[in-house]
Specification:
This protein has 15 helices and 18 strands. With 388 residues, the protein is an alpha+beta fold. It has three domains: 103 residues, Rossmann fold; 60 residues, ATP-grasp fold, A domain (Dna Ligase, domain 1, 2-Layer Sandwich); 191 residues, D-amino Acid Aminotransferase, Chain A, domain 1. The strands form four sheets. The chain has a five-stranded mixed beta sheet with strand order 5-15-14-10-11. The chain has a five-stranded antiparallel beta sheet with strand order 12-13-16-18-17, sandwiched between helices. Strand 2, helix 2 and strand 3 form a beta-alpha-beta unit. Helix 1 crosses helix 12. The N and C termini lie far apart (59 Å).
């Protein structure tokens, strides 16, 4: 089985997806913008063949690489990247070379304004919205919903370029500096961010699912450079499971990871935020492994190669990602934290620079049986010096 993997070198922990494919008997053909010598050795050893292009955005170069692979290795059976950036490229390759998987409807899965149709069809409420056209359209929207409003790129990733607008002065300030791409305006929603994450098989059935909650919303973390933590649930709220499952049925997601985001309001209702057909970002795949004593990289490889169709998940622990930032002083040093955590620390990592704005430079992955323990250790890791 030949599997084309786009950008297998990023994020860094995703090298495990190709590695597990190889263990499952597949041949992995990689396309990157890196020379093979720049790839980590584990990844080099996992790639049956590799072609470097000057830029993965160059469709012509990528198609030429695909044709070289087909000439040298025969039929390509799957295409994957696990990155939102390359969803359209994946679909383009599948369509041109008649490969199984998502080929159509990508615009609706990339534009936040169109995602709302999926939520609506699934019976999930979304915030009132409008596409930002000009100053007058912004004022009309504010007149309808009032301040504050949220303005963000219609096709943005995560919380990039997302703004909370509280008054006319802030609106004018934003409009004078807006970038030349479409934005969406939304009524502000107060609530906790919760997710519905997992993997489907080739029939669209859910193989496994989990859920995470964030201590702060991503916009506030990024704009205010805040410390934060997030963790998985051991018991998935019934409303969240039903809403997430209905959304997947509507979208007919096949053989793909999914990452759905919701606000949970004070009255317990869910408001759909966005839909992503990829694993959750950062080190969340590793968190899944530590929380459930599973191997999500191998599970995906088993699904893709047709060796796994279902999976019985045991929700053993809460695994939390607890951040730290270079700019802050903390009461306890890194060495003291390591001593305090002991075997409760599953992994410590310095994060790639591209993650730093939102997630901080350092991550502690810890696991406990109770949420009280998670919150206590997060407070400990974030505690400021006594003289501050």
């Amino acid at each position: 089985m030949n599997i084309l993997y786009l950008s297998p070198h990023f994020p860094p922990n995703f090298y495990l997806f190709p590695a597990k494919l190889v263990e499952r008997g597949a041949r992995v053909l990689g396309i990157t913008d890196q020379h093979v010598s720049q790839l980590r050795l584990d990844l080099q050893m996992s790639l049956w063949d590799h072609i470097q292009v000057s830029d993965l955005h160059s469709t012509q170069e990528v198609h030429a690489a695909v044709e070289n692979f087909q000439r040298d290795h025969g039929t390509i059976h799957r295409v994957e990247s696990h990155l939102e950036t390359w969803l359209e490229l994946e679909a383009d390759i599948r369509k041109k070379y008649k490969i199984f998987g998502l080929k159509e409807g990508l615009e609706a899965l990339r534009r936040k304004s169109l995602m709302k149709d999926f939520f609506s069809e699934a019976g999930v409420t979304t915030a009132p919205f409008r596409i930002l056209e000009d100053y007058d359209s912004a004022l009309e929207f504010v007149a309808e919903v009032g301040y504050p409003i949220i303005i963000k790129p219609d096709t943005g990733i995560g919380a990039q370029d997302t703004h909370k607008i509280r008054n006319l002065e802030e609106l004018q300030f934003f409009l004078e500096r807006r970038k030349p791409y479409p934005y969406i305006m939304e009524a502000f929603v107060t609530g906790e961010i919760v997710t519905f994450d997992g993997l489907t098989n080739s029939n669209g059935d859910i193989v496994f699912f989990t859920s995470h909650e964030y201590s702060l919303d991503a916009r506030k973390i990024a704009s205010e450079a805040r410390d934060f933590y997030y963790y998985n649930y051991r018991e998935i709220p019934e409303k969240l499971e039903k809403a997430g499952t209905r959304c997947l049925e509507v979208m007919q997601v096949r053989e793909k990871f999914f990452h759905l985001e919701f606000f949970r309001t004070a009255d317990g209702n869910l408001v759909g935020i966005e839909i992503n057909l990829r694993p959750p970002g950062g080190m969340t795949t590793d968190m899944m492994n530590y929380a459930h004593d599973m191997d999500v990289y191998d599970l995906w490889a088993g699904v893709v190669t047709g060796q796994i169709d279902s999976y019985e998940l045991e929700r053993k622990f809460h695994c939390a990602h607890v951040s730290r930032r270079k700019r802050y002083d903390y009461k306890y040093s890194h060495e003291q934290i390591l001593d305090m955590l002991g075997d409760r620390l599953s992994l410590y990592s310095e994060l790639p620079a591209i993650y730093a704005e939102v997630m901080g430079e350092f991550a502690y992955l810890v696991r406990y049986e109770t949420l009280d323990e998670v919150r206590e250790v997060a407070s400990l890791i974030h505690q400021a010096p006594d003289n501050v």
